[in-house]
## 1
Amino acid sequence: MHGSLIETDIPCKVYILHINEQLPPAERFVIQDLDETHLLVQPHRLEYVKAEVKAWQQKNQFNPPADLRQT
């Protein structure tokens, strides 16, 4: 079995599993859920996973209003 190992924190792993489950079965990329912080995924889908996680993290990042930012 060939795959790419992803090591991440638990919330991010849960999100990756969520996006995997939202895809049609033929497009799913998780090969095996190894433990709390590791997943084995299809190598050709690794960049897709990275892009999805990056977008999710940016969307959930706190950006204070300009008047509260320290300079």
## 2
Amino acid sequence: MIDFHVGNDPRYWLDRAERARSVAESMTDPELKRMMLDVAAGYERLAKRAEERRRHLSSLRGLRPRNPQ
């Protein structure tokens, strides 16, 4: 299972996408290469979603009431 904070880090997913593309480049079977590039594209979509979640959560933090001091 992926740690919640890691799963929300776009860099984590972008790194996995880069590794998948690297593996795809070494493949000679065109179908397997296409499949691995599809995996990389999926990781890139996850990175985009993680970035959207990060922005959303960041905007919500500004809405929290402050503790009176």
## 3
Amino acid sequence: MSDTAASQKLPAGAGPNGWLAFAGILLFLNGMFSAMWGLAAITDSKVVTIGGGGDVTIWDFTLWGWAALVIGVLMAATGVGLFLGNTAARMAAVVFTVLHALSQFGSISAFPLWSILVVALDVVILYQLVARWQLEE
């Protein structure tokens, strides 16, 4: 194992409390929920339309479903890498978490409570990723 490969790995759990592993699990679950929502929106937009006249702010449910599916799959894959302790996955997780939180504003008019809940979960994940970030020596 070379020095570059060793420097790309973090210890499992990355700390005495395992907050990085917790963030990885949350990121995986959040990504899977987003991917399932996206798949439902792609296959039948009436499934994700709940009473009322709400609609997505940008595009339509099918196109928004594709965006949610792609972001969700990327988040889930990054969550697995994060759980395994990959440093590159930690950087990618920050990017995908911010993108996911911003993407919720497109559907906030159709699903206000769900969007706020997902943004809150993204903030928790983001906090766990960056608050205890220690540079390797």
